[in-house]
């Protein structure tokens, strides 16, 4: 029983760490579904397959979170638009992009 509870807490912890929205505005349905799944596993016959899949889910959530952290750290331009990326690249080498007069569209 304690290993199932530990797994449940690990899943919820990783969901909380990877969430973008503040805790107050998050959808509670996701955590309630996880709770229901784990409660059913405690009531029924606890299989090794369930525990293995739960550990795999924790590993996946942790890996996704770490991937985003590393992507933000080592590729800070990945979430910019094309124009913002060009300006940031130009600034990196000490140049500024020329100003486009208003009313004139880029070709």
TrEMBL record:
<dbReference type="GO" id="GO:0033615">
    <property type="term" value="P:mitochondrial proton-transporting ATP synthase complex assembly"/>
</dbReference>
<dbReference type="GO" id="GO:0005759">
    <property type="term" value="C:mitochondrial matrix"/>
</dbReference>
<dbReference type="InterPro" id="IPR039196">
    <property type="entry name" value="Fmc1"/>
</dbReference>
<dbReference type="Pfam" id="PF13233">
    <property type="entry name" value="Complex1_LYR_2"/>
</dbReference>
<protein>
    <recommendedName>
        <fullName>Complex 1 LYR protein</fullName>
    </recommendedName>
</protein>
């Amino acid at each position: 029983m304690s290993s199932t509870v530990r797994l449940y807490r690990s899943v919820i912890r990783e969901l909380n760490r990877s969430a973008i929205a503040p805790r107050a505005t998050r959808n509670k349905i996701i955590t309630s579904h996880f709770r229901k799944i784990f409660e059913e596993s405690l009531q029924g016959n606890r299989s090794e397959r369930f525990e293995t899949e739960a550990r795999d889910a924790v590993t996946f959530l942790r890996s996704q979170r770490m991937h985003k952290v590393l992507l933000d750290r080592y590729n800070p331009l990945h979430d910019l638009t094309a124009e913002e990326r060009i300006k940031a690249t130009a600034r990196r080498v000490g140049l500024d992009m020329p100003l486009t007069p208003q009313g004139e569209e880029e070709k």
